[in-house]
């Protein structure tokens, strides 16, 4: 099988293999160390006898590969858990139960996912618009004062950690100027307008940081394209500068921007954790930080896997899009 | 015999391999860039402040961990007594709300943590990455496959998430700054490994390396004497970019409350509480935010300068104050 369909198939297969490997590594890393998980789950005042009982309940005594196998089974087919007296069923994509609350990790993630997706996807739209826009503008105005100002702003964006810009934005906009209320998550399905208003600052904080890299990349790619012969030909034929920049030079920036966007999904997710914690948005990131603080391993492992899933998937999708934007890739 | 072969083989006659500039040429090229020079001075000052932290605080007569309960107004919820958050001759930058710890002392000791963690983590990431990359390139097909897939996975996983999660499984008694360093070091080596592998594969077939192999030198010796000098430029370039990334990562983890923990001061940690206290003591927000901004900015500009100095064919990626029409370079 060759050609485009073959490329997509191979890429998807590689994605599945990567995800499996990620799950093994994450599982082993997180469950190979804990000597005192039972102790932590049980509480500080548990007797050694009680701790041993908890360890048995959590199957901490089984060998690692047995536990991983159970974990995979749960993921594919669901699993039954005995919680003392009754048996709870955890349906198909089962990531286990929280040590702390006995809640199913899959449910927990599903309730938090809309918040995180709203944050990251909204910010992504914003950073693409801001970043590519700034890049186009500075390529167009190259050598002039406005380009220098844009360069300085972009550099500042690169050097500011997301939580610093978020904190400053929140204090200035919500605290001092009182332009916006302190963000509080409202579901899109409840009130789309309130949803957008409340997410505006979180989106901005995340997008301002990420946009800087896109601005630089777009500018560099466009200048490279503008120096090519076919652009000179367009100009010689009298194609307007606006069309040269907006239509032809921008096309040269398309493929690298797609690639960078995929690369940045990982760092954006990291930024989302910070943004959620800072603005008190009840998303996956905030829950992950909480789970880390109380050493709730099933929640930590489940969330890392789900995040890893999205990042690996985003990379695969970007590879395919990249191939669409630049057909030469398929042959490689 | 082998020595002469090596010497004649090196100089970059092959255009596919970037010539490694000598140290002196590197310094000259770095000095030519004004922005990088300013950044280097700022970084040098920061390192100096970090090293001299005990001296500076002794000069002020304070230390970063002593509480001053008499200097905060407990009736008003722990706001520092006096103007501007308690700035005085004794406390140059005021006091931390609630605890009354000296802010100047915490800031300069915070520089120690920030730079110490970031630089050590970068060293660890670079060593691990070079080791993995060179091993993959020189090993047989299986070694290469296993190491390369492992590298792919490490690169794919978000650093912040992995660091956050790894910090959960380590017993609480472990010294936190060391722990953050190790965690960042152990998961941040992916890109260095990729660069090292690609570069080693390119270098491996050059005449001087083949000559060394034919002379019967062992792999370790070849790696050290013939390959590492050729790896220096690309690896250094990326390592210089890792430093500001590590500074941000440490601050972010401490900001989330899972990195460096009190009483050890850290800039990220100071920001966590600033959210509540900015009205009573604005410098409580401005100091760590400013320190982080300046440090990361200086490190980023310096990193870009290092890149330009090592590979003069590529123009600055940051393009600070370009006036020429760029792109054609």
Automatic annotation (TrEMBL), chain A:
Keywords for this protein: Cell membrane, Membrane, Transmembrane, Transmembrane helix, Transport
Gene3D superfamilies in the cross-refs? MetI-like
Instruction: Extract the InterPro entries matched here.
Output: BPD_transp_1_N (IPR045621), MetI-like (IPR000515), MetI-like_sf (IPR035906)
Pfam assignment, any one: BPD_transp_1
SUPFAM superfamilies recorded for this chain? MetI-like (SSF161098)
| UniProt subcellular location | Cell membrane
Keyword Transmembrane helix attributed? yes
Q: Which CDD domains match?
A: TM_PBP2
Its membrane topology, per UniProt?
Multi-pass membrane protein
Q: What is its main location?
A: membrane
Ranges where the ABC transmembrane type-1 domain occurs: 113-322
* Transmembrane annotation, as ranges: 12-32, 115-137, 149-175, 195-215, 299-325
Assigned protein family: Belongs to the binding-protein-dependent transport system permease family.
Which protein is depicted? ABC transporter permease
Q: What is the lineage of its organism?
A: Bacteria, Bacillati, Actinomycetota, Actinomycetes, Kitasatosporales
UniProtKB/TrEMBL annotation, chain B:
Where does the UniProt annotation locate this protein?
A: Cell membrane
Q: How does it sit in the membrane?
A: Multi-pass membrane protein
Where in the numbering of this chain does the ABC transmembrane type-1 domain appear? 111-303
Keywords, alphabetical: Cell membrane, Membrane, Transmembrane, Transmembrane helix, Transport
Q: Which PANTHER family does the record match to this protein?
A: D,D-DIPEPTIDE TRANSPORT SYSTEM PERMEASE PROTEIN DDPC-RELATED, OLIGOPEPTIDE TRANSPORT SYSTEM PERMEASE PROTEIN APPC
Q: What protein family does this chain belong to?
A: Belongs to the binding-protein-dependent transport system permease family.
Question: What's the protein called, per UniProt?
Answer: ABC transporter permease
- Please name the source species: Streptomyces thermocoprophilus
């Amino acid at each position: 099988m060759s050609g485009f369909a073959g490329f997509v198939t191979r890429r998807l297969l590689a994605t599945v293999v990567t995800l499996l490997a990620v799950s093994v590594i994450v599982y082993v890393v997180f469950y190979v160390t804990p000597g005192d998980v039972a102790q932590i789950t049980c509480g500080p005042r548990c007797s050694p006898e009680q701790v041993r009982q908890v360890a048995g309940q959590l199957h901490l005594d089984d060998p690692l590969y047995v536990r991983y196998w159970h974990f995979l089974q749960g993921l594919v087919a669901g699993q039954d858990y005995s919680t003392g007296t009754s048996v709870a069923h955890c349906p198909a994509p089962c990531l286990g139960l929280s040590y702390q609350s006995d809640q199913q990790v899959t449910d927990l993630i599903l309730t938090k996912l809309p918040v995180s997706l709203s944050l990251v996807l909204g910010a992504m739209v914003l950073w693409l618009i801001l970043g590519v826009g700034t890049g186009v503008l500075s390529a167009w105005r190259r050598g002039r004062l406005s380009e220098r100002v844009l360069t300085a702003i972009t550099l500042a964006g690169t050097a500011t950690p997301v939580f610093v810009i978020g904190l400053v934005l929140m204090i200035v906009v919500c605290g001092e100027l009182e332009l916006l209320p302190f963000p509080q998550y409202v579901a899109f399905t409840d009130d789309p307008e309130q949803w957008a208003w409340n997410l505006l600052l979180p989106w901005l904080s995340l997008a301002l940081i990420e946009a800087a890299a896109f601005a630089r990349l777009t500018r560099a790619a466009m200048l490279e394209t503008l120096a090519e012969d076919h652009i000179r030909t367009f100009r010689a034929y009298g194609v307007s500068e606006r069309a040269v920049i907006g239509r032809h030079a921008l096309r040269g920036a398309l493929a690298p921007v797609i690639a960078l966007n995929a690369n940045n999904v990982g760092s954006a997710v990291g930024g989302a954790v910070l943004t959620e914690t800072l603005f008190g948005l009840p998303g996956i990131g905030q829950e992950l930080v909480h789970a880390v603080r109380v050493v709730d391993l099933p929640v930590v492992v489940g969330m890392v896997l789900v995040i890893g899933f999205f990042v690996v998937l985003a990379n695969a999708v970007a590879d395919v899009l990249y191939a669409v934007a630049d057909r030469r890739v398929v042959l490689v | 015999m082998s020595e002469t072969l090596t010497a004649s083989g090196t100089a970059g006659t092959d255009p596919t391999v970037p010539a490694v500039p000598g140290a002196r040429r590197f310094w000259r090229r770095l000095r030519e860039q004004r922005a990088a020079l300013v950044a280097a001075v700022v970084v040098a000052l920061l390192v100096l402040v970090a090293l001299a932290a005990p001296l500076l605080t002794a000069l002020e007569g304070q230390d970063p961990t002593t509480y001053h309960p008499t200097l905060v107004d407990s009736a008003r919820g722990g706001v520092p007594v006096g103007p501007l958050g308690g700035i005085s001759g004794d406390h140059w930058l005021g006091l931390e709300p609630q605890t009354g710890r000296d802010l100047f002392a915490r800031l300069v000791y915070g520089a120690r943590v920030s730079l110490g963690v970031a630089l050590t983590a970068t060293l660890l990431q670079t060593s691990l990455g070079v080791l993995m990359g060179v091993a993959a390139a020189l090993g047989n097909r299986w070694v290469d496959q296993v190491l390369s897939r492992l590298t792919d996975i490490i690169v794919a996983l978000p650093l912040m998430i992995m660091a956050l999660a790894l910090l959960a499984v380590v017993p609480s008694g472990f010294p936190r700054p060391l722990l953050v360093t190790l965690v960042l070091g152990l998961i941040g080596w992916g890109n260095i490994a990729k660069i090292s592998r690609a570069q080693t594969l390119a270098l491996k077939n050059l005449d001087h390396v083949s000559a060394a192999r034919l002379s019967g030198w062992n792999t370790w010796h070849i790696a050290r004497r013939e390959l590492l000098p050729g790896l220096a430029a690309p690896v250094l370039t990326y390592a210089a970019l890792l430093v500001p990334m590590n500074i941000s990562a440490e601050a972010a983890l401490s900001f989330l409350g899972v990195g460096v923990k009190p009483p050890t001061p850290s800039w990220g940690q100071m920001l966590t509480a600033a959210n509540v206290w900015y009205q009573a003591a604005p410098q409580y927000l401005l100091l760590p935010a400013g320190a982080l901004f300046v440090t990361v900015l200086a490190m980023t500009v310096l990193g870009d300068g290092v890149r330009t100095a090592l590979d003069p064919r590529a123009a600055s990626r940051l393009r600070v104050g370009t006036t020429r029409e760029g792109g054609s370079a």
